[in-house]
């Protein structure tokens, strides 16, 4: 070979140079196969990329360090999970009501981690540039990590509590779980650039603080040391994912001016899709955490109105503005969690988690956090239901709700300008009328009607007889919902009985 | 004498998740591999067709001709989920780091027989591109594949191939800096000995059936290439004082042995499923192995000289035997 140049050999490469040689240099221009055939999906969304090498991977991660650091994190995490199980950590949580947040998490969030894993694998194979492709592959395997570590963490809780036992089966069937499922399938079925705008930017960058943080802080506040350890362990992965989201958006915007309106349209769509998905988190934060972190309203103000505001200010130099209908979200923040919880309360018989009417102490907290709405609109409702309950007439809604064609949430949200009127929008397409919960969802449909015609709407499916039968118990069997245990109110549930049993055993110990 | 610590015992109401219990036949303690793998991939009630592939569902069994009654039969004998995978690889990588440190401290990767160094630059370093191609193929299996059992193993293999490409790149950097890697890329792109191989790799990118791609990559190509390069080529290196090179490529030897256990288990199970599967596997194996053997010959001749043809033939013979043990018989295919 060429005599090695001793000077070059001695010079130590900078991290940036080393990374460039270990990644960028791997690619080559194919000549035996047409590049368009190898990468068939990079053009069809209309995004123009002139120089793939302009994408800077901010982390410069190579496999040697990835294996090393991730393995260290896994060793620590599993040590905590094992010790939590050995010491019956489930007995030290604040209250068994908290477990309902985990039920939401494993049925509605963990499957999304898996979906993200496959979605990023798709982009990780099909993006033309080496830099973004490798970044997507790292995220693909990270997301698999999150799905699996969440299952392993919650596996221990499943050994004691109801509603956690069949999350993957339920995700594909249960009515309210079509909300997260359709959200992610909408992203996966889009092209690679829209997928990244949806998941990496709108979801991971703009909205993660409102999804991931409430669950993990909720776990910390409520004594769930296993789940919070998962949270800490995933934090550095999440930071990487968020940074990828911002980098990829800037990359698209910088590459071609023509990309700006396309990206803006996706940001509008995915802000709204993500925001609607968060209604379940809003309810979890306000109602399911016995020890509360902050209200939904405060979280929205802090993370979106302030944090997101600064971000969009920063993006304005590319011609990007705040997402459409952000002002609707602002108007809804006084009502969001209360309307969601009220709905699930009415459908408690058909849900795989428990509901309850809030205690007087909680209602005082709500009144303080929601001075413009709670005492006026929602306290009377809970008082009424609590009284009905005390009279042995617990209210259940036995009708099947009208679902929004896009977000698939029952159309229970109210008009942004009038919280006493239900918001419904309709649209006739090909001679058929479609229903929406909001202008946001209506506009998304209008842009791609042929996509949303395909929605697997749980209520329609039940009525068409595709869900195990025509009666509620038959449908619940088909969901694998363990009736009398997974569903109905917390009061009187096996979860409550178990928890009270543990508590009284503890009191006996203290007394003796 | 054993000490016994008394602890609170709390009765468990369930041992594992219901989907796992159904697969195990009853509710009993399950392994972490089982809980992390079974039914993880959605299989019904998809909302929308992919805009990039409207002929299929998001996850669709018909993206391959292979038919399995249960795709979760294609389990990983290593029982890798993310945690066990990364921990295993970080151990292997620790050994690589030690070997690199040892070799680099003494300049062992750039001080042996210069003629053989040039040969190593020619035969080994372009493989970083081949590994990058393998990375794409494995990633495609994660994208197109069906069931979390095989797709998660493919995800791990995706990252493995990137890791191997990076180990080879580091060898190049230690041999002579960045210009060595540039030169190796030139070989990959234009040296005549490499062109049939590069063509084969580029052709493998556009294979439509992901299971065929799996056979082409992990059985036919790897099955001949790895023993040729890390076995036969390396053996000559040992005679020429390149022992340090064997140390820093030990990862690949160990990895190939390990990944073959996975590939073999999966292929054997898929072949056992039906005659149709066996026919497809045999056809793919036959076509791709023939192509690989032909494509590798010019490179093998350059390194091994006139014995190359026989060596490749004997590697082919062992690979055929391995395939036969898995239920993949090309004789039957030829006869048919």
Oligomer: heterodimer
Which strand-content bin applies to the residues of chain A?
A: under 5%
The domain tally of chain B reads 1
Task: Measure the end-to-end span of chain B.
Answer: 67 Å
Proportion of helical residues of chain B: 55-70%
Tell me about the largest β-sheet of chain B.
none
CATH architecture tag of chain A? Orthogonal Bundle
- CATH class call of chain A: Mainly Alpha
- What would you say the CATH architecture of chain B is? Orthogonal Bundle
Q: What is the makeup of the main sheet of chain A?
A: 2 strands, antiparallel
Q: Based on DSSP secondary structure assignment, what is the total number of beta strands of chain A?
A: 4
Continuous helix count of chain B: 14
The secondary-structure class of chain B comes to: mainly alpha
* Number of self-contained structural domains of chain A: 1
Going by CATH, the homologous superfamily of chain B would be: Ribonucleotide Reductase, subunit A
Q: Summarize the helix and strand pattern of chain A as letters.
A: HHHHHHHHHHHHHHHHHHEEEEHHHHH
Strand order of the largest sheet of chain A: 1-2
Keywords:
heterodimer, A: Ribonucleotide Reductase, subunit A, 23 helices, 3% strand, B: 336 residues, mainly alpha, Ribonucleotide Reductase, subunit A
Mind explaining what this structure looks like?
The complex is a heterodimer of chains A (512) and B (336). Chain A has 512 residues and is mainly α. Chain A has a single domain (62-511), classed as Ribonucleotide Reductase, subunit A (Orthogonal Bundle), CATH 1.10.620. In chain A, 60% of the residues lie in helices and 3% in strands. Chain A is built from 23 helices and four strands. Chain A has helices spanning 6-10, 15-22, 35-38, 63-86, 99-126, 130-158, 167-171, 178-188, 192-207, 212-221, 225-255, 259-277, 279-288, 296-315, 326-332, 336-346, 360-369, 374-390, 439-447, 449-452, 458-463, 472-478, 494-511, and strands at residues 414-415, 418-422, 425-429, 432-436. In chain A, helix 4 runs antiparallel to helix 11 (225-255). The longest helix of chain A has 31 residues, at 225-255. The termini of chain A are far apart. With 336 residues, chain B is an all-alpha fold. Chain B has one domain (77-335): Ribonucleotide Reductase, subunit A. Chain B is built from 14 helices and no strands. In chain B, helix 8 (195-205) runs antiparallel to helix 12 (275-304), helix 11 runs antiparallel to helix 12 (275-304) and helix 12 (275-304) runs antiparallel to helix 13. The model of chain B is unreliable at 332-336 (pLDDT under 50). The chains are: A mainly alpha (512), B mainly alpha (336). At the A-B interface, helix 2, helix 4, helix 5, helix 6 and helix 7 of A face helix 2, helix 3, helix 4, helix 5 and helix 6 of B.
């Amino acid at each position: 070979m060429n005599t090695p140049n001793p000077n070059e050999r001695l010079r130590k490469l900078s991290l940036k140079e080393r990374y460039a040689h270990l990644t960028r240099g791997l690619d080559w221009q194919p000549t035996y196969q047409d590049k368009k055939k190898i990468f068939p999906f990079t053009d069809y969304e209309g995004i123009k990329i002139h120089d793939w090498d302009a994408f800077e991977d901010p982390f410069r991660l190579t496999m040697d360090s990835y294996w090393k650091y991730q393995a260290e994190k896994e060793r620590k995490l599993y040590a905590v999970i094992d010790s939590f199980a050995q010491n019956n950590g489930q007995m030290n949580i604040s209250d068994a009501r908290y477990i309902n947040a985990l039920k939401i998490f494993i049925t509605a969030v963990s499957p999304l981690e898996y979906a993200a894993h496959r979605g990023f694998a798709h982009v990780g194979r099909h993006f033309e540039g080496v830099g973004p492709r490798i970044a997507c592959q790292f995220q693909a395997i990270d997301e698999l990590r999150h799905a699996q570590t969440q299952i392993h963490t919650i596996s221990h809780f499943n050994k004691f509590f109801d509603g956690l036992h069949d999350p993957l089966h339920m995700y594909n069937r249960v009515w309210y779980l079509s909300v997260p499922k359709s959200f992610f399938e909408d992203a996966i079925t889009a092209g690679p650039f829209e997928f990244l705008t949806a998941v990496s930017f709108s979801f991971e960058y703009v909205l993660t603080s409102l999804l991931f943080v409430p669950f993990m802080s909720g776990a910390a506040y409520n004594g769930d040391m296993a789940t919070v350890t998962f949270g800490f362990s995933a934090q550095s992965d999440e930071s990487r994912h968020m940074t990828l989201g911002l980098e990829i958006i800037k990359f698209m915007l910088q590459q071609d001016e023509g990309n700006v309106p396309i990206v803006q349209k996706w940001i509008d769509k995915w802000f709204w899709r993500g925001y609607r998905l968060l209604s379940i988190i809003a309810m979890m934060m306000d109602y399911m955490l016995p020890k509360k972190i902050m209200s939904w309203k405060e979280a929205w103000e802090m993370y979106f109105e302030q944090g997101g505001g600064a971000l969009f200010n920063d993006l304005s130099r590319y011609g990007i503005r705040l997402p459409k209908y952000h002002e609707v979200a602002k108007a809804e923040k006084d009502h969001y969690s209360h309307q969601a919880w009220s709905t699930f309360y009415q459908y408690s018989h058909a849900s795989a988690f428990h509901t309850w009417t809030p205690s007087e102490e909680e209602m005082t907290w709500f009144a303080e956090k929601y001075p413009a709405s709670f005492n006026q609109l929602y306290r009377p409702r809970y008082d009424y239901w609590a009284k009905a309950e005390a009279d042995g007439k617990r209210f259940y809604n036995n009708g099947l709700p009208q679902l929004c064609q896009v977000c698939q949430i029952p159309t229970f949200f109210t008009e942004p300008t009038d919280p006493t009127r239900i918001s419904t929008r309709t649209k006739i397409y090909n001679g058929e009328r479609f229903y929406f919960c909001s202008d946001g969802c209506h506009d998304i449909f209008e842009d791609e009607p042929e996509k949303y015609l395909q929605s697997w709407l749980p209520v329609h499916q039940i009525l068409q007889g595709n869900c195990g039968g025509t009666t509620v118990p038959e449908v619940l069997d088909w969901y694998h919902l363990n009736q009398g245990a997974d569903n109905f109110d917390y009061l009187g549930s096996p979860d409550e009985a178990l928890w009270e049993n543990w508590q009284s055993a503890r009191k006996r110990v203290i007394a003796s | 004498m054993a000490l016994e610590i008394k602890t609170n015992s709390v009765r468990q109401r369930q041992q594992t998740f219901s989907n796992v219990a159904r697969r195990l036949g009853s509710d009993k303690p399950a392994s972490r591999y089982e809980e992390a793998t079974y039914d993880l991939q959605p299989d019904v009630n998809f909302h929308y067709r992919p805009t990039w592939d409207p002929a299929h569902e998001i996850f669709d069994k018909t993206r391959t001709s292979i038919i399995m009654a249960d795709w979760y039969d294609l389990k990983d004998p290593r029982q890798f989920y993310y945690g066990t995978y990364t921990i295993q690889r970080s151990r292997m990588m620790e050994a690589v780091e030690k070997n690199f440190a040892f070799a680099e401290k003494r300049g062992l990767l750039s001080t042996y027989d210069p003629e053989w160094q040039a040969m190593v630059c020619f035969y080994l370093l372009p493989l970083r591109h081949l590994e990058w191609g393998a990375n794409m193929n494995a990633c495609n299996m994660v994208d197109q594949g069906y069931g979390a059992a095989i797709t998660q193993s493919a995800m791990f293999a995706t990252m493995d191939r990137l890791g191997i490409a990076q180990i080879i790149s580091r060898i190049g950097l230690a041999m002579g800096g960045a210009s060595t890697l540039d030169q190796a890329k030139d070989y990959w792109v234009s040296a005549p000995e490499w062109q049939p191989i590069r063509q084969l790799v580029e052709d493998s990118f556009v294979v439509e059936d992901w299971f065929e791609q799996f056979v082409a990559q992990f059985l036919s190509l790897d099955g001949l290439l790895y023993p040729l390069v890390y076995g036969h080529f390396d053996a000559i290196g040992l005679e020429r004082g390149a022992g340090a090179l064997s140390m820093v490529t030990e990862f690949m030897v160990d990895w190939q042995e390990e990944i073959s256990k996975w590939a073999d288990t999966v292929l054997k199970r898929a072949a056992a499923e039906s005659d149709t599967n066996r026919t497809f596997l045999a056809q793919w194996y036959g076509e791709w192995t023939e192509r690989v053997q032909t494509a590798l010959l010019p490179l093998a001749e350059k390194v091994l000289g006139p014995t190359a043809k026989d060596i490749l033939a004997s590697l082919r013979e062992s690979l055929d035997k391995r395939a036969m043990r898995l239920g993949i018989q090309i004789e039957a295919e030829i006869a048919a």
